[in-house]
Design brief:
Largest sheet of chain B: 2 strands, antiparallel
Low-confidence stretches of chain A: 1-25
Order of helices and strands of chain A: EHEHEHEHEHEHEHEHEHEHHHEEEE
Mean pLDDT of chain A: 89
Number of helices of chain B: 11
Number of helices of chain A: 12
Low-confidence stretches of chain B: none
Helix content of chain B: over 70%
Largest sheet of chain A: 7 strands, mixed
CATH architecture of the largest domain in chain A: 3-Layer(aba) Sandwich
CATH architecture of chain B: Orthogonal Bundle
Number of domains of chain B: 1
Mean pLDDT of chain B: 91
Bound molecules: adenosine-5'-diphosphate, magnesium ion
Radius of gyration of chain A: 21 Å
Number of domains of chain A: 2
Structural class of chain A: alpha/beta
Number of strands of chain A: 14
CATH topology of the largest domain in chain A: Rossmann fold
Shape of chain B: globular
Distance between the termini of chain B: 50 Å
Order of helices and strands of chain B: HHHHEEEHHHHEHHH
Distance between the termini of chain A: 17 Å
CATH superfamily of the largest domain in chain A: Response regulator
Strand order of the largest sheet of chain B: 1-4
Radius of gyration of chain B: 19 Å
Structural class of chain B: mainly alpha
Strand order of the largest sheet of chain A: 7-6-8-9-10-13-14
Chains: A alpha/beta (389), B mainly alpha (297), C alpha/beta (238)
Oligomer: heterotrimer
Number of strands of chain B: 4
Shape of chain A: globular
Strand content of chain A: 15-25%
CATH class of chain B: Mainly Alpha
Amino acid sequence: MLRKLTITACLTAAFALSQVPATVSAQELVIGTATGQTGGLAPYDGPAMQGFQIAVDEINAAGGIGGKYKIKLISKDTRSDAAQTSIAAQELIDAGISVLVTPSDADPSFAAAALATDAKIPAFSPAASSPTLPLMGGDYMFANFPGDNVQATVSAEWAHKQGLKNAYILYSPDTQYTTLPLYFSDVFKKLGGNVAGEGTYTIGQQDFSAEVTKIKSMNPPVDVVMTAAYEPDFPAFIRQLRAAGVTAQVIGSDGIDSPTTFSLGQAAEGLVFSTAGHATPGSALEGFNKKFAAKYGKETDTIFSAIGYDLMKVIEAGVMAAGSTEPQAIRDAVADLENIKGVTSEITYKGTTGMPVRQVTLIRVKEGERELVGQPSPTADLVPAPRMQ
Amino acid sequence: MEIFIQQTINAISLGGTYALLALGLAIVFSIMGMINFAHGELMTITGYTLMYCGLAGFPFLVAAPVAIGVAILAAVIMERVAFRPVRNSSGATMLVTSFAVAVILQTLFQNLISTRSQAVILPDMLAQSIHFGSLSIGINQILSISITLVVLVALNWFLRRTILGMAMRAAAEDFSVTRLMGVRANGVIAGAFAISGALAGVAGVLWVAQRASVDPLMGFIPVLKAFIAAILGGLGSLTGAVAGGFALGFIEIYLAAYLPDHIQPYREALALGMVILLLLLRPNGLVPAFNVGREKV
Amino acid sequence: MAILTVEGLHVHYGAVEAVRNVTLSIDDGEIVTLLGANGAGKSSTLNAIVGLVPSHSGQVGFRGESLVGLATEHLVRLGITLTPEGRRVFGSLTVEENLLLGSMPLGKAGDQRKDNLDRMFGLFPILAQRRQQVAGTLSGGQQQMLAIARSLMSSPKLLLLDEPSLGLAPQIVDTIFDQIVALRDSGITILLVEQNVAMSLEVADRGYVMAAGSIVTSGTAKDLSSSHLIEQAYLGHE
Ligand SMILES: Nc1ncnc2c1ncn2[C@@H]1O[C@H](COP(=O)(O)OP(=O)(O)O)[C@@H](O)[C@H]1O
Ligand SMILES: [Mg+2]
């Protein structure tokens, strides 16, 4: 999941201040989080950090990582602003952290990645899904979500298997995440499908009547529409699409894994989207959801809380493998991790550039409820290379 | 041809919503000389009222007028609490104040309600449409167009046929002399805010009926569009605001409809470019305000 | 009997002192003229009397009531009104709408509103012809008549006129001055600010002369016309 923020990473250089190492107890792992607890990223970073905290509490209650390293969290709110992310990241680095957590969006994470790379400290975005982030962000930048290209491959393969042939994609050039349908288009064509049109929208757009009219007028008719639009754009789009009488299969992505999607009534019926996990009975994710409800007194309403939890599990595994809280050692260990058991999926970094290999889950909306379609792995050859911007 | 008619109906519907929004900004600007950037938050308040009414089980036909009423009340309170103390300050002070009000409200929504988008329960009917041959007009669109029409006619009647309406037109032109006529400054300004609240409420209901959700930052895009439409139309001119709203709606829909796919990513930039071009041709807007440049309040 | 008394009035615009210690009074039924060069502070004085600009200090009394601190929109209901400099009719409103707004201080007295409207159309027949025309399209002279008529719609006891002849053709100026006399004869007291010294002194009973914010001389219209004090005031000698 990621979102466009207006201010670019240019400001990072301005904040590359000299580092003042602080004294930190050797038996402590200091993690700094610079995330958007207010502003546009709050719906993602808020729950992610709630889940993260559950893992931290659990580990500390058990005596720390490997019974040795207690975790100390220093949290800063970036107000979902890229410049503020740089400032917060620099302050945290100056405070002597070993691990940095950045926002769930690629754009501000880029700003922090440059600082982390300079300081040789591993940085993690809980839910950024752009495969470009760890690739361009450098050796110290990791993500923790199924990549856009991987999600798109799984969706396209599923659509192909359903016998769908004529696709229309709707994407937004505004952010990397919302260009996910371009990956879908690549894979769908490789599988022999036709892409009848590529429509665009602007994030925040409410009126999709022009796009819907175009989709409706396609000849032969479109049988699958793929988009990575999320709230509030997605609900507006699908309502208008259905109102116009278009019955094509609609496929979305993780950004719409939210309560609103399940309360759209008839308009969302049959919608399929890719996301990071599913709480089947008896699964680890179900167990996590219970812990969440116990701690916060309410059910979690998004997968991002479990993603936050899993991120801490990845860091824990990295520290265990490194046997140290030395940032460089942790980074090297994480880059070599394999099959770490998260509650959403098994997670592997070995052999990647920092975008983990994870399961993708396909969910269908059925009578306002979540129905598991499957948790397929993509055919490796079909996964498109990260698109550079 | 049918597609063209369909796209034109789409443009009228979108333009109508922009017109209502721009009018709300313009009516306050015409009298106070202030762009109220918290206008969008009045829409957000409308949205949350719809949401809570839905949760309380109110039918939409009850919830919508209640939500508009709450928006009117919020607008009047906003004026009383935030804008009256800075009424005679510089334009910059008023602008900053309205930004501050917007941010404070957004933060309150985030902290008191939720940072996440909240679903608004709507009648299924709003996601259906009526078909005429291959034309399909959404119930939402029909409602939007007819409500916009009713609101514009009613507002026009109010401004031309009532003494308060006349006083508001006078105040938009020359506030001091209006006071010389015995018209209470507080009354006129409160009236302007009440009307802008009503317009934000109606637009908010139409907006939310389309997106079926409400979030703390929801007001930003609409107020931006309204601002562009109001400038395009001629800042402070009510007729201009309506013209600007429709012009923006038509530009956006026709570009989306007829630009080739490979140019579509530049659509937003092109739309703004066209607005700028129109402004170069008509620097004071499509229908300039009567008293361009005169001091307000 | 004084209908208006001004005592020790000061008006400041930031650091600029536009009116300094002005004291004047007007008796019921008089035409009093306030003369002075451009920038002398005449308009500021009138605007301060009706509360359009705040007075820094001083007293303003109207028929025994203090106007200081009263908002413009309230004090016009007491029977005092101003026809501002530059006419300032509502250009996008029709002639009739302008006049109706002028009658707002009457409150809900509907009959009087109608009577006044008829009276204004009698007084200024051209306005009756242009009744539905927007005021912005009227000629300068017509706009001035409309501005005066609009002030009269509230049945004021005291009318403050700020440069009614400004920018008008000579014949029109004559008409306006005739009407000022007629208004006084109908019982309205008038404070006339003018640059047209000769004509003002012709119609006025008394006059005050301002220079650089202060009253420099005053007297009966007759005395003022025969003295050199006015010329001196205009030339800036004090
Ligand atoms: N709104 C204002 N702000 C600042 N200075 C003003 C303002 N109005 C008038 N002045 C200044 O006050 C002085 C008196 O102006 P005014 O009362 O208009 O004079 P008059 O009507 O005699 O021509 C002038 O120097 C003028 O420049
Ligand atoms: Mg003057």
